[in-house]
Write a structure and sequence with these properties.
heterodimer; A: 430 residues; mainly alpha; 19 helices; 0% strand; elongated; B: 155 residues; alpha+beta; Alpha-Beta Plaits; 2 domains; 4-stranded antiparallel beta sheet; two-stranded antiparallel sheet; 4 helices; 6 strands; flat; YCII (chain B); YciI family protein (chain B); Dimeric_a/b-barrel (chain B); sigma factor activity (chain A); DNA binding (chain A)
Chain lengths: 430, 155
């Protein structure tokens, strides 16, 4: 095997195995940062040996064995870690070196413990996301920096700080229970959904990231639903991720261009994932509490999933769900969504009224999709000159050249139709 | 939140006199400690202003006039900077206060300044699923539009 091929293969193994490796080591040494160091050591040893020996049959187990050996060495050798060693000895008195050879037991609990640590409230939100993407998503600091448009050293330092904070504040690696579980769950859900979206929108480039991150997020979500079955938002988030995943194959065209929901081939949506999503949503509803933001977004996604053709979409229901969402999690962009759904259900004139009310919203100042929506609504009302002006305005507000081009073309279309009207040629009602 | 420490110059720095080796070692140790604590993003020292150029804008929208250094007013010049990430101003201050006396003569000073962060929270960039929904809905609005039109065309 050539060195380069070996490195690519090792890279792939690392993506798949690193989270499990770190989770298991963290349980063993009781320190997230130390666990990552040990996993990295094992990776370095693999990088040195595998190009010569070839990739072992079970590379994950090999890495785990190597890292555990290092862990045992370290725990024995390092007097400073005596206390941790004792703790470890108490925690698993039957552990012997022979055990490292066998790979048994459910990894699920260890991953859960790790995510409750990486999403710990003692960390800032940015640090939680960075640390979780790094340790559970297997992303490099460079990829995380790229995804969030911050300099790479900032992300690297955030991760260093986060690990220090966890060590220093003696965060226990456990899955909280009762009231504490309720409190800490929301920050975990937030990070899981960010991780899912990172995969779904694939800002970090490489095509491997998308499926892997989405699958990991979905898997973590399903595991969380088992530890916290009484929390409607856990089921809501799972439902949302399942339904979004059902469209995974249809949302990108052959040359990588995005395909909008209404233009997707619905026959290719994954019915199994939709069924699972609807079932999860039903579980959220059956708990009898008002739906939270995740469950409401899942309910909106479900409306689309249940419409056999775009024309069957229940827009009135979607508008009502956006209204509920804007009460549960107020946001001007949610309001803009509601305006479009209302226009779809009850006509462009009412939609336009809502959009115009949003014009003074400070958060939407400079947001080019506001005039863009306004342009579409005006065009539908036949007010072509105003529509043209709105699209021109939208074009001047975005830096994205493709979007600029699209907005300019829309403006030109409106201008052409407007001129047509003035010529006295038959007017198109739109 | 991010902060910048501006290390101000003094006459010695402006004259191009390098700090004594014990000063440099103390500063290196300080940087290392900050790096290990995950505070320090990056740091650099500048050359004296004699190596710099100044551009001044004397009329609105006009082209700037250029002056070569040195710029005089040694204490007003910048000798170096450090970019930090801290959880609070208090924490950034605690680190800044530990900086070894830059020149070792009780001269000069440093300034701690907070960076203006973009209004957009850094973790919302490019990641908003609600915005993706909005794009889909705009697509629906446009499709509906096209459909109404094509209905009117005689076939």
């Amino acid at each position: 095997m050539s060195g380069r091929a070996a490195h690519r293969a090792i890279d792939a193994v690392w993506r798949i195995e690193s989270a499990k490796l770190i989770a298991r080591l963290a349980t063993m040494v009781r320190d997230v940062g130390l666990a990552e160091d040990l996993a990295q050591d094992a990776l370095l040893i693999a990088l040195e040996r595998w190009p010569e020996t070839g990739i072992p049959d079970n590379p994950g187990a090999w890495l785990m064995t190597t890292a555990k050996r290092r862990a045992i060495d370290l725990l024995r050798r390092n007097k400073l870690r005596d206390r941790k060693y004792e703790e470890y000895g108490r925690a698993s008195p039957l552990f012997t070196e022979d055990d490292v050879e066998t790979e048994t037991g459910e990894i699920g609990d260890e991953l859960l413990r790790l995510i409750f640590a990486t999403c710990h409230p003692s960390l800032s939100r940015e640090a939680r996301v960075a640390l979780t993407l790094r340790l559970l998503g297997g992303l490099t600091t460079d990829e995380i920096a790229h995804a969030y448009l911050v300099p790479e050293p900032t992300v690297a330092q955030r991760i260093v700080r986060a690990k220090k904070t966890l060590s220093a504040s003696g965060v226990k690696l456990d899955v909280p229970e009762g009231k504490e579980l309720e409190e800490r769950l929301s920050s975990v859900l937030e990070v899981v959904y960010l991780m899912y979206n990172e995969g779904y929108s694939a800002t970090a480039g490489g095509s491997w990231i998308r499926p892997t991150l989405c699958q990991e997020a979905l898997r973590l979500g399903r595991m969380l639903a088992e530890v916290a079955p009484r929390e409607p938002e856990v089921h809501g988030l799972v439902a949302l991720m399942e339904i979004q995943s059902s469209r995974f194959k249809t949302r990108v065209g052959p040359s990588g261009e995005p395909i909008l929901l209404m233009d997707q081939n619905r026959a290719l949506w994954d019915r199994l994932l939709i069924r699972r999503g609807l079932a999860a949503l039903e579980r959220a509803r059956s708990l009898g509490r008002p739906l939270g933001p995740y469950a409401l977004q899942a309910a909106i996604a479900a409306c689309h999933a249940q419409a056999l053709t775009p024309g069957d979409t229940d827009w009135a229901r979607i508008a009502a769900l956006y209204e509920a969402l804007s009460r549960a999690a107020p946001s001007p962009v949610v309001e803009l969504n509601r305006a479009v759904a209302i226009a779809m259900a009850f006509g462009p004139a009412i939609g336009l009224q809502i959009v115009d009310q949003l014009a003074d919203e400070p958060a939407l100042k400079g947001y080019y999709l506001l005039p863009s929506v306004r342009g579409d609504l005006l065009a539908k009302l036949g007010r072509m000159e105003e529509a043209r002006a709105a699209f021109e305005r939208a074009a001047s507000m975005t830096q994205n050249l493709r979007e600029q081009d699209l907005m300019r073309r829309r403006a030109a279309e409106c201008a052409a139709r407007d001129a047509g009207d003035k010529d006295g040629s038959p007017r198109e009602t739109v | 939140m991010r902060f910048m420490i501006l290390i101000k110059a003094n006459a010695r720095f402006e004259a191009g006199i390098e700090p004594a080796s014990d000063r440099a070692a103390a500063f290196a140790a300080y940087c290392r400690e900050m790096k290990e604590a995950g505070i320090l993003i990056e740091t650099a020292s500048l050359l004296p202003s004699a190596e710099g150029l100044r551009l001044t804008y004397s009329e609105a929208e006009g082209s700037p006039a250029m002056t070569a250094g040195p710029f005089g007013d040694a204490a007003g010049q910048v000798a170096g900077y450090m970019l930090l990430e801290a959880d609070s101003e208090r924490e950034a201050y605690a680190w800044a206060a530990r900086m070894p006396d830059p020149y070792g003569f009780g001269e000069g000073g440093i300034e701690l300044r907070r960076l203006r962060e973009t209004a957009e929270p850094p973790f919302a960039a490019g990641l908003s699923p609600i915005e993706a929904d909005l794009r889909d809905q705009i697509g629906a609005l446009r499709n509906l539009h096209e459909k109404t039109r094509s209905k009117e065309l005689p076939t």
